[in-house]
Amino acid sequence: MAICPMPWFPVYASELLSDEDFASWSPSARGCWLVLVARCWKDGSIPADLNAIARLCNEDAQAMREHWESIGSKFAAVPEVPGRLFGIRTEQERDLAIQKAEKLTKRGQAGATARWKSSDKVLKHSSSIA
Hints:
By secondary structure, the protein is mainly alpha-helical. Helices cover 68% and strands 7% of the residues. It is elongated, with a radius of gyration of 23 Å.
């Protein structure tokens, strides 16, 4: 599970607002979900322990248990790391973001290579004239 190179993550407003799960959550559960998604994006995962999750969300344990009944299905166990959870959708978006970053990096490297190769030809040509 790689940490994403970008400090931001996409939130698709129309998708979020039309999601029946999200619409049924309390404002507090929505806030907890967003905090946990942001943690997953930044750190790669969150603790599986509900008390630790409550602390991350600044909630008491009872309130977090109630919220978890709603939002818990959006997270899954990290197979390689016992005791950690990842955001299911967060990982999909991370994979897309990493693929896009790698593609842009390759494009940039190819462009720089092409530019410097043509600059070398100009320099060689200029030095042979003098």
